[in-house]
Design a protein that fits this description.
Blueprint: E1 20-23, E2 28-31, E3 35-36, E4 42-43, E5 47-48, E6 54-55, H1 56-76
Antiparallel strand pairs: 1-2, 3-4, 5-6
């Protein structure tokens, strides 16, 4: 016998914050890949931003890429930061 248990909703009535699906048997949200939390209301580990679109890995990668380009420019032109 399948039980139908309501999943948690936001104040606006959105089930799983519109970032996941409800498991009717457990009443828990199954969050989409970039989302986490009881209501799928926070970014999953490694993601950030208003839409959880940005991965920390890529942010660090681009930071170091830009930093290296600046350092190479400065070294080649006898500049310092």
């Amino acid at each position: 016998m399948k039980r139908n248990i309501a999943c948690p909703t936001t104040e606006d009535g959105e089930v799983c914050s519109n970032h996941g699906s409800c498991d009717d048997e457990t009443g828990k949200c199954n969050c989409d890949a970039k989302w986490g939390g009881t209501l799928c209301e926070v970014c999953a580990l490694g993601y950030y931003g208003p839409s959880c679109d940005l991965s920390n890995f890529f942010s660090f990668f681009f930071f170091f890429l830009i930093k290296n380009k600046i350092n190479n420019y400065n070294n080649n032109n006898n500049c310092s930061l």
